[in-house]
Design brief:
The chain is of the alpha+beta class. The chain has 2 domains: about 110 residues, no CATH class; about 130 residues, Aminopeptidase. It contains 7 helices and 11 strands. An 11-stranded mixed β-sheet has the order 1-2-3-4-11-5-10-9-8-7-6, with helices on both faces. Strand 8 and strand 9 form a beta hairpin. The longest helix has 23 residues. The protein is globular, with a radius of gyration of 18 Å. The termini are far apart.
Length: about 270
């Protein structure tokens, strides 16, 4: 595994752990379990695999078949129903993917990981304004996150807790005085991770996502980050890849495609 891949996996895991820790502090049903570099997070009772995930499996230390079975049992004990396991290109051993499938998991849409250095940020053209989101904007931030990502309302306190909580930097875009979109930056050890980038449908096509992306990059530079990491879903039929294009225009370069495996019953239609 090259150094940048390890950095990209580690910062995302750290951000996820910090997010759930923030939720725990406000009484959300957020649960984490860490074993070395492997992190499991769960929002108890949720069917959404985005809220129930395993990060870092096979990174640093090789995974084991017993470890895979333990993770499956951990989610089952918490009634998570559906959960996601990330598998980076260099995850070890090679049999890991076969073990996941043998445990009942199925291949799921992969994520493309990106990195960016300390190049200057070019402000995009937009009709929206962007504001740093402290506690006074936490409800707007959380509401947009739930709407944009289809998260259950029970997660609002989990996400709202990030606003004004170091080392998180949260932002909200506005159309006039109407909240339109969001984005967050997590910083640790000179590395930044960008997440929660979304714009409500009524305000898309106005440069808002690029503006929030630029605001987060400026904050990362101000915080001394030497590299910034983010990700988005791989191209699939019917997806216009707006996020991919916005990320690329902001100066990010593609690092790798990370496989995902989903556990639990198929999504209800």
């Amino acid at each position: 595994m090259n150094e940048l891949e390890e950095v990209a996996e580690r910062i995302e895991s750290a951000a996820a752990e910090s997010w759930y820790a923030a939720g725990t502090d406000v009484g959300a049903r957020a649960i984490t379990a860490r074993d070395g570099g492997v992190l499991a997070v769960s929002f108890e009772g949720s069917r959404d695999p985005m809220l129930n995930r395993v990060l870092g499996l096979g990174v640093g230390l090789p995974a084991t078949r017993a470890g895979v079975e333990t993770l499956v049992g951990w989610f089952g004990a918490r009634h998570a129903e559906r959960f996601l396991v990330h598998v980076s290109p260099s995850a070890l051993p090679a049999e890991l993917r076969d073990w996941l499938i043998a445990a009942g998991l199925r291949p799921f849409r992969g994520w493309v990981k990106f990195a960016r250095g300390r190049e200057l940020v070019t402000p995009p053209e937009t009709s929206l304004s962007v504001r740093a989101a402290g506690p006074e904007l936490r409800d707007d931030f959380a509401r947009i996150a739930c709407q944009a990502f289809g998260l259950p309302k029970e997660t609002q306190s989990l996400t709202a807790a990030l606003c004004g909580r170091p080392p998180w930097h949260c932002f909200v875009s506005f159309a006039g005085e109407t909240p339109a979109g969001i984005g967050a930056l997590y910083v640790e050890d000179g590395v930044g991770w960008l997440g929660f980038g979304a714009t409500l449908p009524a305000f898309r096509g106005r440069g808002g996502q690029s503006a929030v992306l630029a605001a987060r990059l400026e904050a990362a530079l101000d915080a001394g980050c030497r590299v910034v990491i983010t990700e988005t879903g791989e191209a699939v039929p019917g997806d216009k890849q707006h996020s991919y294009r916005n990320i690329s225009r902001a100066g990010f370069r593609e690092l790798y495609l990370r496989e995902n495996f989903v556990g639990g019953p198929p999504k209800k239609t």
